[in-house]
UniProtKB/TrEMBL annotation:
It comes from Paenibacillus germinis. It holds the Pfam family HPPK. Its EC number is 2.7.6.3. Pathway: Cofactor biosynthesis; tetrahydrofolate biosynthesis; 2-amino-4-hydroxy-6-hydroxymethyl-7,8-dihydropteridine diphosphate from 7,8-dihydroneopterin triphosphate: step 4/4. This is 2-amino-4-hydroxy-6-hydroxymethyldihydropteridine diphosphokinase. Keywords: ATP-binding, Folate biosynthesis, Kinase, Nucleotide-binding, Transferase.
Length: 171
């Protein structure tokens, strides 16, 4: 971490997904919970997108969105906090890529690259997922983040492939 990051925090992007019960409520509760953590401030929101399930397709449609945060937590601690919030919001792990009340994925943490047994940054599957890239591109654009050009190039490569967006609700 640079001295500047230690002082001002690191800009990070978190993907949210939900496909059980009151999906919008879970998204909102997760955002509130993250913002209430000391060392995390939510600074940007994408719209909410309804998306067809990808990977394991025999499940309900998801609501997905991406948020920008500024955090003074190291990446591993941020992940740990995200996993604790998932647990509080009733997340269970029964089936890989299966239904969930809330899923929180750490997409980008500044321009850091990291591979540990518990955490890979950038998220290793984000570039294949329209349900991540579309809202991420939206929030990067809104927040005028320099990563916009880079990520929107990935999005262009995905055009017409998978992760159909069914509808979008503006925030
Ligand atoms: N960038 C990351 N963000 C979130 N979790 C990560 C990341 N890199 C590695 N992991 C690890 O992945 C584990 C499983 O995460 P999770 O259960 O949310 O996976 P999933 O959402 O079912 O599938 P996917 O990882 O493909 O999104 C977490 O416990 C965490 O240790
Ligand atoms: N549409 C959509 N499909 C998924 C999602 C998701 O959030 N949205 N999450 C998955 C596991 O991370 C697997 N498939």
């Amino acid at each position: 971490m640079t001295a500047e990051e230690q002082e001002q925090g690191t800009i990070a992007y978190v993907a949210l997904g939900s496909n059980i019960d009151d999906r919008e409520h879970y998204l909102q509760d997760a955002i509130t919970a993250l913002n209430q953590e000391s060392g995390i401030t939510v600074t940007g929101l994408s719209s909410i997108y309804e998306t067809e399930p990808v990977g394991y397709v025999d499940q309900s449609a998801f609501l997905n969105m991406v948020i920008q945060i500024i955090t003074v937590l190291p990446a591993e601690e941020l992940l740990f906090t995200m996993l604790a919030i998932e647990k509080r919001l009733g997340r269970t792990r029964d089936l890989r890529w299966g239904p969930r009340t809330i899923d929180l994925d750490l997409l980008l943490y500044g321009d850091h690259q990291l591979t540990t047994p518990d955490l890979i940054i950038p998220h290793p599957r984000m570039h294949e997922r329209a349900f991540v890239l579309v809202p991420l591109t939206e929030v990067l654009y809104k927040r005028q983040d320099a990563a916009f050009e880079f990520i929107s190039a990935h999005l262009e490569k995905l055009e017409g492939k998978e992760g159909v967006i069914l509808w979008k609700k503006a925030q």
